[in-house]
Structure formats: structure tokens, C-alpha cells
Specification:
With about 400 residues, the protein is an alpha/beta fold. The chain contains twelve helices and 15 strands. The strands form three sheets. An eight-stranded mixed sheet has the order 6-7-9-8-10-11-12-13, with helices on both faces. α2 crosses α8, α5 crosses α6 and α10 packs parallel to α11. The longest helix is centred in the middle third of the chain and has 18 residues.
Length: about 400
């Protein structure tokens, strides 16, 4: 039932491995719920089928056309109730739905602030919604509500790859297309808000969003500064292979060995000197087009950040196995650590989502209801509030570490 582009990208073996991995985690299927549908991009319909298993649930999400051919498929964590973090005070802000460069979004405005600083949130790599929903958790919503409770206006939005599942596989598509147009539109939307100080609009990116944040600042000079949370500085292919091997070591077996071999093979193709726009999609990582990978190979986030010369707050979790202090934070420190307007801060207890805990972190941790730690949110808010525009230049409160 797959359309040819998806069939080329996802083999039966890859689909089988993904499904088996989920059932190993959740147990056998016990019930299939009633499907729901909603309009999707390019005249497609997004069909979501809830599935109940012995130890939890998931959803099979498909983009289908009028002939019931499948153009996109993903296995998502089942929707679960979300409760606000203790540091969010709903009496201190209001929210309204907005549209950001054609994408659904949310504007969160503090109710007791005037000339407030503001921030645009960028989620990590993959088809994330505006909250960066991961299992029962919504890290970007945690951050938005926590910052708004402290007097900071916030915009967050669904990524184009969430709204249009086939976007990343289209020829010509790049990470700039994935993030920058919507981020710039969000900045300009904030500039028009009466309570927002237009000279204090920041960009906060998590994971891949943090890697791309300097590119947003390069495209929109009015950006006052950047907050990078677990932003990777190593090539994506390098990190993909490292993470795949880490996960295989934690859950050894033939299915994981096959998945690692596939990622290693695809990473080698992406890194090869002869990669071109004509390289077949089924040979490339994550279903991203060759144009995406050619663009990423040419992008240096640290050099771009240095060139734009904006104040930066760079945060890293000590328990993060996806983006690490050893490999990625070290890149930021090597390129920017000597600047007095750059603060680097590591949290030993934090994982990739900035959930605090003990011991080695794992993907399973993301399925347990948690919140971005309040210490992290407070540190971000304090940095944003301390960074102000004075006499035509930026004045940074605090000291680089």
C-alpha cells in the first residue's frame, strides 16, 4: 500500500524491525482503537490508529491519499494526559493559537509584563509538534509555560515535517527549509506584539533546533541572542552511528544489529565524496533527501554562531547519550568559550530532554511522565531577563563560565 517514494525508503525489514522493537517494549497487542482522521498537507489525510498493548500503547500514524495509498508512516507514542510542571503559574500568562509561516502554533504572553523579552522555541530533529511531544512529556510546553510564568513571551509551532510528513524526502529540501522560514516569521510576529520589547527577541533551540539556531540568527539580524539546549556540533552521521551502537549495546539482538548495519551503511553514503543530488533516497539516512545532507555537510554551527556574534547560553546534560558533553559541548567550548558574552553550563543530572535523574539514561526514560527541571527553566529565564539592549548595544548580565 506504500506509494513508490515511501516504498523505496522503508523496506519490509526496516518496518518489521521497528514494529518488533515497539512490541518488545510494550508487549503484545491487546486492542486496536477507533481510527481518527484529519486533513494533512498536499491533499492527504492523516489517519491515526490507537493500539493498546500489554504494557502501554502506541499510535500508528499514516498519511494517505484518496486511493488509500500510504505516503507517510510513523509509530508514535500513545497520547497521554499532561499535567503542568510545578513552576508554571497559569494565572500569569495567556495563550492563543496562531499561524506561523502557514504552520499551526501557539503564542504565550505574560499578563503582568511590559516591554517583555521574548523567545522563539525550536524543537529537535524529526517530525515534532509545537510541544516536542515525546511519550507523555511535552518539553517545549514545559519551557514555554515556565518562561511565561517569569515574564517572557514565547512562540512555538509545529514543524513543517510534522505537518507534511513527506517534506524532508523531497529533492531540494534542506534544514533551512525545516526551521528558518517559520522561525523568522515567529520573530516578526513577536515584534508586532505591543507588550514585547522588539530589541529582546531570542531563539531557543533544543537538540537539532539548537544546532540550527545560529542559522536563524544569520538570517534575521534582529535576534538578540541564542539559547542552545543539547545542540550537537559533531556531524549528524557521526552522532547517528554512535547513538545506534549505544542503543544496540543496551538491547542486543539480531533486530538491533540489523538496524545498526543499515545506519552505518547509509551514513557512509552520506559522508562519501560522491554524494550528489541524484543519490537514491533509499540509500540515505532518516529518509532525508540528498540536498538535505549536502547542506548539512557544509554547515558548521559553531563557526556560524561565532560569525553572528550574538550572546549565547549553551546548556548540556551530563546524562545525555544523544548529544554529549564530551563530543558536542566540547565543540561549543572550543569555538566560543573565550567570549565573555557566551555562558556554557552543564547539569550532571540532566538527560537529553533535561529531565533530572540518576544513573545511565535511556530512551525508556522518555516514556515516563516528567518535566524539564525547574532549575534549567529558571536559569534560562534569568539569562533572558538579564540580557538587555542599552545604548544601542547588548549588555550581558552575569559572567561566562
Amino acid at each position: 500500500m506504500f506509494e513508490p517514494p515511501l516504498r523505496a525508503l522503508v523496506s519490509a525489514e526496516v518496518l518489521r524491525t521497528a514494529w518488533t522493537t515497539e512490541l518488545d517494549r510494550l508487549g503484545a497487542v491487546s486492542a486496536i482503537g477507533r481510527p481518527t482522521s484529519a486533513p494533512a498537507a498536499n491533499g492527504l489525510t492523516r489517519l491515526t490508529v490507537p493500539v493498546t498493548c500489554e504494557r502501554g500503547g502506541l499510535s500508528v500514524v499514516m498519511s494517505i491519499d484518496g486511493d488509500d495509498h500510504i505516503h507517510g508512516l510513523r509509530i508514535a507514542s500513545a497520547a497521554m494526559p499532561w499535567t503542568p510542571p510545578s513552576y508554571a503559574d497559569e494565572r500569569r500568562f495567556v495563550e492563543r493559537d496562531i499561524t506561523v509561516d502557514g504552520l499551526p502554533g501557539t503564542l504565550t504572553l505574560p499578563t503582568d509584563a511590559d516591554r517583555a523579552p521574548a523567545v522563539v522555541l525550536l524543537s529537535g530533529g524529526g517530525p515534532f509538534d509545537r510541544d516536542e511531544t515525546t511519550g507523555p512529556n511535552r518539553p517545549l510546553k514545559d519551557i514555554a509555560w515556565g518562561l511565561a510564568s517569569r515574564g517572557v513571551a514565547v512562540v512555538r509551532f509545529d514543524k513543517i515535517t510534522y505537518v507534511d510528513g513527506a517534506a524532508a524526502s523531497r529533492p531540494g529540501f534542506t534544514a533551512t527549509d525545516e526551521y528558518v522560514p517559520a522561525a523568522v516569521a515567529a520573530i516578526r510576529l513577536l515584534r508586532a506584539e505591543p507588550i514585547v520589547d522588539p530589541s529582546r527577541i531570542f531563539v531557543l533551540g533544543h537538540s537539532m533546533g539548537g544546532k540550527i539556531a545560529p542559522r536563524v540568527a544569520a538570517a534575521e539580524p534582529s535576534v538578540a541572542g541564542l539559547v542552545v539546549m543539547a545542540g550537537d556540533t559533531k556531524p549528524m552521521t557521526w552522532n547517528a552511528v554512535r547513538v545506534a551502537r549505544h542503543l544496540a549495546a543496551a538491547s542486543p539482538g539480531p533486530a538491533m544489529d540489523a538496524a545498526v548495519a543499515t545506519i552505518e551503511r547509509q551514513a557512509a553514503v552520506v559522508d562519501a565524496p560522491d554524494l550528489s543530488a541524484d543519490t537514491p533516497l533509499d540509500q540515505l539516512l532518516f529518509g532525508f533527501s540528498a540536498s538535505y545532507w549536502l547542506d548539512m555537510r557544509a554547515y558548521d554551527p559553531v563557526a556560524t554562531a561565532a560569525a553572528v556574534g550574538k550572546p549565547m547560553l549553551i546548556l548540556q546534560g551530563g546524562r545525555d547519550f544523544q548529544v554529549t558533553a564530551e563530543h558536542d559541548l566540547a565543540g561549543w567550548r572550543a569555538g566560543l568559550g573565550g567570549r565573555t558574552d557566551v555562558t556554557l553550563r552543564a547539569y550532571d543530572a540532566a538527560d537529553h530532554m533535561f529531565f533530572f535523574g540518576e544513573g545511565q539514561s535511556s530512551v525508556a526514560d522518555y516514556e515516563r511522565p516528567q518535566h524539564v527541571d525547574g532549575t534549567v527553566v529558571a536559569d534560562i529565564a534569568d539569562w533572558l531577563l538579564a540580557t538587555s539592549r542599552s545604548d544601542g548595544g547588548l549588555r550581558r548580565g552575569g559572567r561566562a563560565t
